[in-house]
Design a protein that fits this description.
The complex is a heterodimer. In chain A, a hairpin with a 2-residue loop joins strand 3 and strand 4. Chain A is built from three helices and five strands, in the order E-H-H-E-E-E-E-H. Strand 2 of chain A pairs antiparallel with strand 2 of chain B.
């Protein structure tokens, strides 16, 4: 099983800022026209009173590194992605982000031996309250695994 | 900001069809997300690793599911969770359609199931969103 010795290990937390320009560029890149991301007036009248970041914005954050864990640079496949929010991300938020390898397991399928790595990423506010959690499953194919041994 | 939707269990939400995506937008997404993997922006590179051509970022497609579900409901700030499974490659030259069905509504929370297709191929399956309603 791949990276077994890293399962359970976490990165040192990294501070990220939800910056207005970054949110605007991200919303434009995903072609999401909601004014809640860019229009102060609309945002002021909304439930949270501030500009919002799109739901997949946590993809942009720096989560730090798990000491010693080096993934192959190419050929990894994203299998699943989950995100859950305690509240939406708001422009101006300062978020403490970290990464953990939650699990690693193998499955033998029609296309050979597949490795599955489950990463959890979390974001907390400066008071330590959880804002979001993401879980993503990365698939390591047989070919990529063979490349790792050499 | 829309009125809170009055959804019923089993209701199919309006299908959303996204037009093909031009290269510039995907370059912008690479910059905005920090994911510069060349399989998403460089046809030649993508073909050199055995792909038919550039493929869409998984999380770009997930963003389209989030948008479709959020827009059908009470806006993006009503989304509490979203899970997806990626099952096929998405190609920028093809339309992407997102369909969604209300699975459950109770206590101000709705569970919506979603899938995304291109040309009849299922790209995202087992999408599940939890949203605040009402």
């Amino acid at each position: 099983v791949l990276y077994m010795e890293f399962v359970g290990l976490r990165s040192e937390p990294v501070r990220n800022l939800v910056e207005r320009g970054a949110v605007r560029r991200f919303a434009e890149a995903i072609a999401d026209p909601s004014p809640l991301y860019v229009d102060d007036e609309v945002a002021t009248r909304s439930r949270y009173g501030r500009l919002l970041a799109p739901p997949t914005f946590p993809r942009t954050f720096d989560y730090g590194r798990i000491e010693g864990l080096e993934l192959p640079s190419a050929g990894l496949i994203h299998g699943e992605f989950h995100i859950s929010y305690e509240r939406p991300l708001l422009v101006g938020d300062e978020i403490l982000c970290r990464l953990q390898l939650k699990d690693s397991y193998d499955k033998r399928g029609r296309r050979g031996l597949l490795g599955f790595l489950v990463f959890e990423r979390t974001g907390e506010d400066s008071g330590g309250a959880r804002i979001f959690t993401t879980n993503d499953v990365v698939v390591v194919t047989d070919a990529v695994r063979r490349g790792m041994d050499t | 900001v829309s009125e809170a939707p009055r959804w019923t269990t089993g209701e199919a939400l309006r299908e959303r069809v996204l037009p093909p995506v031009d290269r510039m937008r995907l370059i912008k997404y690479a910059g905005a997300s920090g994911d510069f993997n060349p399989i998403h922006i460089d046809d030649e590179f993508a073909q050199s690793v055995g792909l038919p051509g550039r493929i869409l970022h998984g999380l770009w497609m997930m963003a389209q599911v989030a948008r479709a579900v959020g827009a059908a409901g009470d806006g993006p700030d009503a989304l509490r969770s979203l899970a997806v499974q990626f099952r096929g490659m998405g190609f920028p030259e093809q339309e992407l359609s997102v369909s969604a069905t209300v699975k459950e509504v109770s206590d101000g929370t709705a569970i919506v199931e979603a899938e995304a297709f291109q040309d009849g191929r299922r790209i995202i399956r087992k999408g599940q969103a939890t949203l605040r309603v009402g």
